[in-house]
Amino acid sequence: MDADTLKQKLAALPSAAVQELDHARRGFSLDVSLPPAQLVAAVTILDEAGYFIETITGVDWLGENAARIKEAQAAAAAKKAAAAKKAAEARKAAEEAGEPLPEEAAPEVEEEAPAPEPAVDDLEAIYDFNRYDRCHRVTLRTRAPRDKPSVPSIVHIYQAAHWHERETHDFFGIKFEGHGYLVPLLLPEDADYHPLRKDYSA
Amino acid sequence: MTAIAQSASSETFVLNLGPQHPATHGVLRVKLVMDGEYIVEAEPVLGYIHRMHEKMGENRTWAQFLPNTGRMDYLHALAYNHNYVCLVERAASIEVPERAEYIRVITNELNRISSHLLWFGAFVLDLGGFSPLLYAFDDREQILDLLESVTGSRLTYCYFRFGGVYNDVDQDFLDGCKAFVARLRERMPMYHNLVTKNIILMKRLQDIGFIDAEMCRKYGATGPVARGAGIDFDVRRHEPYSVYPRFDFDIPVYPGCDSMARYMVRMDEMEQSMRIIEQAVGAIPEGPVMAAKAPKIIKPPKGDYYHAVETARGSFGIRAVSDGTNTPYRMKLRTPSFSNLVTFGEAAKGMLLPDALALMGSLDLVIPEIDR
Hints:
The complex is a heterodimer.
Chain A: H1 3-11, E1 17-20, H2 23-26, E2 30-33, H3 39-48, E3 52-60, H4 64-96, E4 122-130, E5 138-145, E6 150-152, H5 161-172, E7 175-177
Chain B: H1 2-7, E1 13-17, E2 29-35, E3 38-45, H2 53-58, H3 66-69, H4 77-92, H5 98-126, H6 131-151, E4 160-161, E5 164-165, H7 171-196, H8 199-205, H9 213-219, H10 224-227, H11 235-238, H12 259-283, E6 303-311, E7 314-322, E8 330-334, H13 336-347, H14 353-362, H15 367-371
Antiparallel strand pairs in B: 1-2, 2-3, 4-5, 6-7, 7-8
Helix pairs in contact in B: 4-5, 5-6, 5-12, 5-14, 6-7, 7-12
């Protein structure tokens, strides 16, 4: 299967977003975001295309939603300040020209909307695949909310996932449904913490 | 585990190998379910030397993480240095002077030979032959002296910098490399006569420890394990980095899928590394060894970055996520022995215990790199 066919097949999955990347700059060829329900289908496509599994890992996006709200608020505040400045300039120009002052805009009665409560942030599971015959690194990424981080296991397709998923569970607490043996791999046997979560500190 | 254990004869027992067993080369433990002399189930137990390098990557600056890279694979530390500086140079768009790239290649290949020599000695030691270890360590010592003279350390190197290398090499070093290559070339036939053609070694390795290409693909095995299964895969060729494309070298591939094939791949690789060193020493250009405009503070643009290199054990990849600050947001370390060792559980099934130890030796495990 050539790279284009693979790209089309992955893009055809429901709600999958496929992005081509510059390998020389980023080290990836293809980046695919998809919902957890489509993960097994995508991995099956890669398996049939003869890709080998490089690694599975996670990323904790704690604070991402709060940052987004803050950003939106900052943008709104900046827009408001710009509008006020423009109005002031217009008044000043009119004054200098001796024209009648434009009517003062009614003070905005718009009530400050209370900041929306940020939604629960996501944990992301990331899968890297590559080929032995030529370099074509494909990344699959799927997200699950932090309070219920659950994605399907791919251990029945790639046996390497047995350890990679255990490690990702150790570090992030992502539950791989169908794995069946998610006991700590690198952490102590009785570990009940997930050190790579951003709110964990030793 | 239980399903197979039940299907075996009721006489099975659990044998604990390690974590302090000489054959595991470090703190690796393997839980073995045995039926007499035969292995029914093998489950490696990891984590005895886990230090959470990935978390350390998140709580220090990009530059502060550099010494950590030399402390994962202590046998081929320069490759780990190399991967990390290449990743940061890729992310932060830093140009590296040619001379520095040549120095990186020369020191890297010397380090690869030293790693293979140690593996060679220790592997034959596992199989019951003591004296080759002493010969191998004698040769390895020459490399450690050479590398010490330029890097200042003998094992956990931290020699490369973002944009170049820490200090320049002198003519003595280059002459030393030439002398070393000449010396090892002379000794390789001795190794082959003494060890490779030894009937005991052949009987212990041939047709034993089967890991084929399909298994490699499913487990993500790379390096000599994949090349011993007939897969022509070497990151230096596959995803070229540094100045490797300028050199003429072969990728040894053996289709045997057994412990002997993996042994032969590493033995041949030493010769190929010597070829690269010879060419690099002959063609090394004059010039600076650090980029003139290497930034003091590294702040790569937001996004994900990946870089891989070929270490003595296979493909080592770093996947870094930058949030645009001077501290990495995420630093995933994809180490080759981790993926190579997953195959052990399946490959060791049905083997005699001493053969499984030979198989384990043929995987060339470095435990601190697996546990990170």
